[in-house]
């Protein structure tokens, strides 16, 4: 394989180490917590075909469902692959660093992170599938004085990561309501026409909300459901109701292993089939992942079920919290579609250029959506699997006449 224009042999690591240092150097990309360095570890191989063992990691959110289910329900094994139990990591920077150190060869990342890794750092990452769609929300505290998106001026709102769909969509909401997104100290003066954004680890958000330390947060599930159940918070907008069926996390692999199509397509097969299984067995998937089941997520099944399934107009419609404003979209609180649509990639790149960020941002203005789609998104594996399971239209809201094309729908 070639890396930043140089030939790289298996086990060689100088450039990868440099990329990790640059990743850590972009401090604002992180979760706000310290990042521990991971040693470079070659992935071990198993079986006569010499396929790498699937070694994955995840953040404790429902975004990780396909990877967790692919291991736990035996979809990797069905493909003849050995997989180790996915490893829980608490922050996005540690996950990205561990992946770049090749401690893991499969993980899920917030969609803008691999864009940063490939085009900001030159790291050879590939997005092999969307991991899920929707699955995030804006949750506010009981004493925040926020009853709708129009009330976000003068407030302190946490995001999980600067390079996240959460930050992108939050700023789209603020702009729509004439509120300026700013990034500053939480003790600095803030006008009623400004909203301060800051990074906070998702597991810390509900506690901060309950104590009144923050006014709200926009994040992946199950932390919105946790905020509702345990922190007296309320969801005032689902992100999938702003940007229809948007991807949030994506499944990523190393480019050299993707080039081994016999192997990478087996991995992708397992992920896509796990997505379809979780879609058709969402309640069971929630049970499996909860602390009442295989203990991947540190919450009881009733909380995970709420996070993945509760999406009713009585609670969240116009007479409820207002979190659902587009019921005709036939949305779901958590959903899946594995295919990486070109139009989505182009729109995400466009929105990143309009988003206030912290850290390394100089590469963004020169980004081209078509180039990002071509160089970052590996779609052949999803296409192959989709055709084998009845077509991409087995997933929600897919046009059966043209399943591999869609036009993005955004309505703030």
Structural features, described:
This protein is α/β, with parallel strands linked by helices. The chain has two domains: 12-134 and 247-296 and 335-394, Periplasmic binding protein-like II (D-Maltodextrin-Binding Protein, domain 2); 136-245 and 325-332, Periplasmic binding protein-like II (D-Maltodextrin-Binding Protein, domain 2, 3-Layer(aba) Sandwich). Helices cover 34% and strands 15% of the residues. It is built from 16 helices and 17 strands. The chain has helices at residues 14-25, 65-72, 75-78, 92-100, 112-120, 165-176, 205-211, 223-230, 255-258, 261-280, 282-289, 301-309, 313-316, 342-352, 369-376, 380-388; strands at 2-3, 6-7, 45-46, 51-52, 56-58, 87-88, 106-110, 125-130, 133-134, 136-140, 156-159, 180-182, 194-199, 216-220, 234-238, 249-254, 334-335. A six-stranded mixed sheet has the order 12-13-11-14-10-15, sandwiched between helices. A five-stranded mixed sheet has the order 6-5-7-16-8, sandwiched between helices. Helix 2 crosses helix 10 (261-280), helix 7 (205-211) runs parallel beside helix 8 (223-230) and helix 10 (261-280) crosses helix 11 (282-289).
């Amino acid at each position: 394989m070639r890396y930043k224009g140089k030939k790289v042999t298996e086990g060689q690591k100088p450039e990868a180490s440099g990329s990790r240092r640059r990743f850590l150097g972009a401090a604002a990309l992180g979760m706000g917590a310290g990042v521990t360095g991971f040693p470079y570890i070659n992935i071990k191989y198993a079986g006569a075909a010499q396929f790498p063992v699937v070694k994955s990691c995840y953040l404790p959110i429902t975004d990780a469902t396909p990877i967790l289910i692919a291991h736990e329900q035996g979809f990797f094994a069905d493909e003849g692959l050995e997989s180790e139990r996915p490893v829980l990591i608490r922050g996005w920077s540690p996950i990205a660093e561990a992946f770049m150190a090749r401690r893991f060869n499969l993980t899920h990342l917030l969609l803008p992170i691999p864009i940063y890794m490939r085009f900001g750092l030159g790291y050879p990452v590939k997005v092999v599938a969307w991991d899920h769609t929707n699955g995030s929300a804006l949750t506010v505290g009981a004493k925040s004085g926020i009853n709708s998106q129009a009330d976000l001026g003068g407030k302190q709102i946490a995001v999980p990561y600067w390079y996240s769909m959460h930050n992108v969509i939050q700023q789209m909401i603020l702009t729509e309501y004439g509120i300026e997104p700013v990034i500053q100290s939480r003790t600095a003066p803030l006008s009623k026409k400004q909203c301060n954004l800051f990074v906070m680890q998702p597991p810390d958000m509900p506690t901060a909300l309950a104590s009144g330390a923050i006014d709200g947060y926009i994040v992946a599930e199950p932390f919105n459901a946790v905020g509702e159940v345990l922190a007296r918070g309320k969801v005032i907008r689902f992100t999938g109701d702003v940007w229809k069926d948007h991807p949030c996390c994506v499944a990523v692999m190393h480019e050299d292993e993707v080039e081994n199509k016999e192997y990478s397509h087996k991995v992708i097969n397992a992920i896509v089939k796990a997505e379809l299984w979780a879609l058709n067995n969402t309640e069971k998937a929630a049970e499996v992942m909860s602390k009442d089941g295989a203990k991947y997520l540190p919450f009881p099944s009733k909380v995970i079920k709420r996070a993945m399934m509760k999406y009713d107009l009585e609670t969240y419609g116009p007479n409820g919290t207002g979190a659902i404003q587009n019921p005709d979209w036939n949305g779901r609180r958590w959903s899946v579609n594995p295919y990486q649509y070109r139009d989505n990639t182009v729109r995400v790149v466009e929105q990143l250029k309009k988003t206030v960020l912290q850290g390394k941002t100089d590469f963004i203005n020169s980004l081209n959506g078509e180039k990002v789609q071509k160089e970052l998104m590996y779609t052949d594996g999803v296409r192959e699997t989709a055709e084998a399971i009845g077509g991409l239209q087995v997933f929600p809201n897919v046009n059966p006449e043209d399943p591999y094309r869609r036009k993005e729908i955004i309505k703030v």
